[in-house]
Amino acid sequence: MLQTYSVIQGKIVPSAAGSPLIEVYILPDDEERSHLINDYKINEHTMISCVDANETPRIEFENEYTAVIMKYPKNYSAEDNFFFRIKSMGIFIFPPTHIVVLLDEPQQLFPRRFPAVALDTPQDVMLRIMLQVVRHFEEHLNSINMLSNELERDISSSMDNQSLMNTFTLGKGLIYYVNALRWNSHVLTKLTFNSSKLHFDEENMELLEDISIENNQFLEQAKTYSQVLEGMMSARASMINNNLNLMMKNMNAIVIAISVPTFITGVGGMSEFTSLFGKKWAMAAYPVFFIFMAALALFIYFLITCEKKK
Question: What are the E-state strand segments in 9-111?
Fold first, then answer.
């Protein structure tokens, strides 16, 4: 699906009347792919990389265009069940035209005007899109932090395994975020070293530096959240192990409490043993054994109760 944007009075708006022109292809079909490959001479492998979530971000300098492959967060919904996904997108620069190929709707890329970004040249537009990608990561990291706090409260007050699985899923998505931000950082660094090929001016370089700083900040933030979730999982696993060990200790104590009286009962039931008491005390042997077993069971139960209190 093709959506057309352009720059009018310093704002990116859904229109084809201004300049620079931005063509956004959302999951291009066969006809659109053929148009991009044949008319714009875009490499087919690079085209496929734009919609491959496992593709490595990079920059390619061709005679006709410059291609930038980046990672961006997939729009999150309740159906994702705490799993934040990463997608790939491609930015192709054909001055004064930009072509963006991605999988989702691009509202996060062009939501509103940012005063810190001038939109006078194709380079400005490319940096604007990159800035929006970084800001999109920020929004998702804030959401992840809120979900993490909710899961922490659920884990501390509930023994349900679902909270543990949700925490694991959230941590899994954070690992993808860390890798995506790290790869995007490499792309931004490479852009800095190749700024002359892209004809960046001084303002472009300052903005690129700001974008790199923000990207690195969010990378460290994602690492911190990932470590917090990992610690939460470890603490939860330790709690489960401790509870299991305590339960096994109690079960062993109960088994001992039953086994010892059973052994004594078996011995006391033997005629050879009871005959030692003589005929006079033979009838009193069983009450004595019963009282002894009851006292022993109460004593073991007392030990179990003390262990629970500790």
Answer: 11-13, 21-26, 58-61, 66-73, 86-94, 97-102
